[in-house]
Design goal:
The chain is an alpha/beta fold. It is built from 15 helices and 17 strands. A hairpin with a 2-residue loop joins strand 11 and strand 12. The longest helix has 23 residues. Bound molecules: zinc ion.
């Protein structure tokens, strides 16, 4: 595979660089996951879908990828985690009279469901912040030992001025901010007076009396600063430096900038070599904003239950819509654009079905047609190797859609290209649509009914076996045999397939 030519736009250098993993064919990738105190937003979904395609393409290119995406389950207040006030998860817990971990579980489940609906692959490891408090306390100790953090009233702050003195040119490089703009965007914070310098940030926060989530530490009973979990969990599972660190553009500062400062402060090296950032989502040309009514949640997008939409759109049409724009460009959602995407997606999937129904027969080969098809197939790789350019990859696939449709119109028999060229076309479609772009045919209503009925039959069979009701379980077995349906009992339950 042409993996050696893969280029990635590195936010650190602001250029496309040839991707050279630290330890090929292994690749470590860390993406900042959701904070689980509310339903996942569409903007977050876009980020995770973008990195899902990165993950899929790296694997397709032959890399062995360890993909780590965290769950932030100890809440934070925007960029102002420094302050010792109530975190978002704690606040929700109090409002709903639930345990903080109930809030975490509820929204983690919802997040996973949404990721499944969008057909994103689960990460290799999904660590939680609360599961790594011990490691976070250890990193704070290391930073203090290295003289780059100080303790004030039970909280610990990273000493940005000492850091800049020790590692000149590091702090601010990622976000491109100069010294004066590197303060965490804080308003009048009560702890501002605790800091030696306004740009210093908390790596351990002393918990106020009524704070629900807190842990013991050498400095106070408290909780880690928000940026710390990613510094700790990324390098724990991927080593340092690892290959790719990703996240939404809004995380560049302060989150990622501070992560870099923490890792340097603890062990003297950068956490990762390539920093990738996904761009923002707009709605009708403007920033999404709930208070202005210019916002839509993923569920509303599917149901069409929003004044901004004329109808609902399937998750796969939405995924296709997102992939039509490069991950580093802003994506403008509108009802009209979604309608166009829905049509485009259907055209692509119809051609995909048609392609596998085409029959080859020997005839006189049209050289230029064959060259055109091969070139469009190869272009899919060229575009993905160019910083994961999904819109251009889709454009190449649509060049092929046009060809496929002419074959269909010509009676579904292909005779002017070689059998090998037809097979290459089929393979390219299958690999790029399914494996790389993660698009799949929507289940029809009939398929959903069959799935539901099979689930019911499997449940009844299970119960009858437990109750030693052999006549029922035999009847199910015999009937399914007649229908040539095979059941397979596995670790994750019973699955079925048509023989
Ligand atoms: Zn993070």
């Amino acid at each position: 595979m042409q993996s050696n030519e893969l280029k990635i736009f590195n936010t650190l250098s602001r250029t496309k660089e040839v991707f050279k993993p630290v330890n090929a064919p292994f690749v470590g990738m860390y993406v900042c996951g959701p904070t689980v105190y509310s339903n996942v937003h569409l903007g977050n979904c876009r980020t995770f879908i973008s990195f899902d395609v990165v993950y899929r393409y790296l694997m397709h290119a032959g890399f062995k990828v360890r993909y780590v995406r965290n769950i932030t389950d100890v809440g934070h207040l925007t960029g102002d985690v420094d302050i010792g006030s109530e975190d978002k998860i704690g606040k929700m817990a109090r409002l709903q009279k639930l345990e903080p971990m109930e809030i975490v579980q509820q929204y983690t489940n919802g997040f996973h469901d949404m990721m499944r609906v969008f057909n994103t692959l689960p990460p290799s490891i999904e660590p939680t912040a609360t599961g790594h408090i011990v490691e976070q306390v250890e990193m704070v100790k290391e930073i203090i030992d290295n003289g780059l953090a100080y303790v004030q009233n039970g909280s610990v702050y990273l000493d940005t001025q000492a850091f800049i003195g020790k590692y000149p040119g590091v702090y601010g490089k990622l976000s491109g901010k100069d010294q004066d703009n590197l303060q965490t965007e804080t308003r009048a914070l009560k702890n501002q007076s605790e800091k030696k310098h306004p740009s210093d940030f908390a790596i351990w926060v002393k918990a106020p009396e009524d704070h629900l989530m807190h842990w013991p530490s050498p400095w106070s009973t408290g909780f880690p600063g928000w940026h710390l979990e990613c510094s700790v969990m990324s390098t724990k599972y991927l080593g340092s430096p690892f290959d790719i660190h990703g996240g939404g553009m809004d995380l560049q500062f302060p989150h990622h900038e501070n992560e870099i400062a923490q890792n340097f402060s603890a062990c003297g090296c950068a956490p990762s070599n390539y920093w990738m950032h996904g761009n923002m989502l707009l709605m009708n040309g403007k920033k999404m904003s709930k208070s202005d009514g210019n916002s839509v949640m993923p569920e509303e997008l599917f149901s069409g239950d929003s004044p901004l939409l004329t109808k609902g759109y399937s998750p796969m049409a939405v995924r296709f819509f997102m992939l039509q724009t490069h991950y580093r460009s802003t994506l403008d959602i509108s009802d009209g654009a979604l309608q166009a995407a829905e049509k485009g997606f259907k055209r692509l999937m119809d051609a995909y079905k048609t392609l596998f129904a085409l029959k080859h027969s020997d005839g006189s080969i049209n050289e230029s047609e064959e060259v055109e098809i091969t070139a469009a197939c190869d272009a899919c790789y060229t575009h993905m190797n160019d910083d994961f350019n999904t819109p251009m990859t889709l454009a190449s696939l649509f060049t092929l859609v046009n060809k496929i449709n002419t074959y269909k119109d010509g009676g579904s028999v292909v005779s002017n290209i070689s059998q090998a060229a037809l097979e290459k076309l089929q393979q390219t479609f299958k690999e790029f649509i399914e494996d790389v772009l993660g698009l799949k045919e929507e289940a029809s209503t009939d398929d959903k009914i069959v799935d539901g009925l099979m689930e019911l039959i499997i449940d009844i069979r299970q119960e009858s076996r437990i109750n030693k009701d052999w006549s029922t379980s035999d009847k199910i077995r015999d009937t399914l045999n007649e229908l040539e349906v095979q059941l397979k009992d596995g670790k994750e339950g019973t699955s079925w397939s048509k023989l």
